[in-house]
Amino acid sequence: MSTDSEILSRSRESPRAFAELFERHSASVAAFIRRRVGADAVEDVLSETFLVAFRRRGDFDTAWKSARPWLLGIASRVMKKHRADEVRQWQAASASAHREDFSYEGGIDGATTRLDAAAAVRGLAPRIAALSARDRETLLLYAWGNLTQEEVAVALGVPVGTVASRSNRVRRKLAPPGSHTAARLTWMGKEETDGRLGAGA
Prior knowledge:
Residues 128-174 form the RNA polymerase sigma factor 70 region 4 type domain. Residues 21-87 form the RNA polymerase sigma-70 region domain. One of its GO terms (biological process) is DNA-templated transcription initiation. Keywords: Sigma factor, Transcription, Transcription regulation. It comes from Microbacterium oryzae. 64% of the residues lie in helices and 0% in strands. The longest helix has 20 residues, at 18-37. It folds into 2 domains: 1-94, RNA polymerase sigma factor, region 2, helix turn helix motif (Rna Polymerase Sigma Factor, Chain: A, Orthogonal Bundle), CATH 1.10.1740.10; 131-191, Arc Repressor Mutant, subunit A (Orthogonal Bundle), CATH 1.10.10. The protein is mainly α.
C-alpha cells in the first residue's frame, strides 16, 4: 500500500492520484470537523479542506509518511471561518457537561487514554471554551484529532516545544495540581519527555 507521502508525490504529476488521499482520510477529517463545528458545516469545511490540500500538495513535507496531521491543520485553519458554528457547539457541550457525570478512576494509559481525553474534553467544556484559540486548537488536535505532540506541531506549523509548552499551560488553566479535575488531564502529559520539551509558546 502506498504511503500518503507517495500518493502526494505522485499527484504532483498525476493530479487524479489525489483522490486516493481523499478516500483514505476524508472520514476521520470529517469526524474531527463535526466535533468542532457541528454536522451542518461538515460538508463545506471538508470540501474546502481538501481543495486547499490539493492546491498545496506540492508543499507537503514528504519526510512524513502520513498526511493526516497536515490535513487536520488545514481543516483547523478553514474552520476559523465557522467560529459561530463552533461557539454553538461549545455552548451545547457546556450545557451537557452540567448534566452528565464524567468520572475518572485514574491509572489509565496506552490507547485507553484517548478515550479519557475525549471524555475530559466534554466534561471540561466550559473551561476549554474559555481558553485562547491557539491553546484550544492544540488541545483539540491532540484529544479529538488523535495526534501526537509531534504531529500537532506539524498540523500547526510550530516547533514541538511550543506544543509541549501550550499543553502545560492548558493543564494549569483547566485544573490546579492535585484537584479531581487535574486527574482527568494526565493524558495530556503522557508523551512529554526531557528530549522533546522545548521553549516557546
